[in-house]
Amino acid sequence: MTNDALAPRTEAVRDRYRATLGAVPGGVEERLCLAREFGRLPTEETLAALRHIVLTDNPLGARVQQLVHFGQLLSLGRDHPARLHARGALHAGAAVADLIGVAETALITSGVPAYALGTEIVAELLADDGGRPSDGAVGRA
Length: 141
Known about the structure:
This protein has 141 residues and is mainly alpha-helical. The chain is built from seven helices and no strands. Helix 1 packs antiparallel against helix 2 (26-37). The protein is elongated.
């Protein structure tokens, strides 16, 4: 199959990431490029379909699901994916105060490094937004 014929299928995978995160992460773009180049697009399609089911057809709902991902990734010390899911949580309707609550919970479950990472990410999000919290619940220090 030619790359032109794969374009709609590749775009459908991207759309699934846009739906949950608001954007397509760079790592996903890299995987899609390799998958198309080596005839492995079905792997990415299957992964995107499973991810979509777990994230959207879930009793927790998209907002809580993204917050859970954020907290788990803080606990694992995975800074880049934690940043993606913090933005995904905001995209799904979470407030900055929700992200701070997750970071505080990570302090108890995973220690100061997880909390520090969480607050660093929240501070970056506020800086990216001109220092304004999205929900008005948190002011700048």
